[in-house]
């Protein structure tokens, strides 16, 4: 009841009865007309003239005058300092002994394969990139008949190398093994053994340099 009486009173205040008897509705807007309608003359008076210095700075930046001078000065400064780049592939940088590159299967100095087919590398591989099949030989030793690595799945985490108890599977120092086809990145046992034979000296040197930390 109180709310309805307040609304009725507000509506009556908005209506004005003139002398001719007709009812006219008065606007209840609280904003004055002068504030709602801007005066163009006053706005023009508020605009300040742009200084010539500011205009010249903007023009110089637009036409790249200052940028070119700044770039040339930087190039001249760098040209007097020693070079920090190398001419790859004719020059190559330093590789850490712990660098994880292309995979390889190693052999003993006698020529026998190190892998004992324990499948720890296959089990620990988070990308499931390793597939191993094994058999028992006549002397009772287990050796692999299949050792495949899908290099497109490998994330080079090094878990296979850390899990191997005989240092058979390692990630060697080679990082230049880009191919043109997908099939060339599906490594089999023969490919891995050939990598081991090729990089055995460097792999053995790297493992010896960090044996205290393994």
Automatic annotation (TrEMBL):
Keyword Iron part of the UniProt annotation: yes
4Fe-4S ferredoxin-type domain: residues covered: 106-135, 145-174
Cofactor(s), names only, from the UniProt record: [4Fe-4S] cluster
Keywords carried by this UniProt record: 4Fe-4S, Iron, Iron-sulfur, Metal-binding, Translocase
Disordered as annotated region, ranges: 27-47
GO molecular function, a single term: NADH dehydrogenase activity
Gene Ontology biological-process annotations: mitochondrial electron transport, NADH to ubiquinone; mitochondrial respiratory chain complex I assembly
Pfam families: Fer4_7
Family matches, as InterPro entries: 4Fe4S_Fe-S-bd, 4Fe4S_Fe_S_CS, NADH_quinone_OxRdtase_chainI
A single cellular component GO annotation: membrane
Family label: Belongs to the complex I 23 kDa subunit family.
Name the UniProt record assigns to this protein: NADH-quinone oxidoreductase subunit I
Organism: Nitzschia inconspicua
Lineage of source species: Eukaryota, Sar, Stramenopiles, Ochrophyta, Bacillariophyta
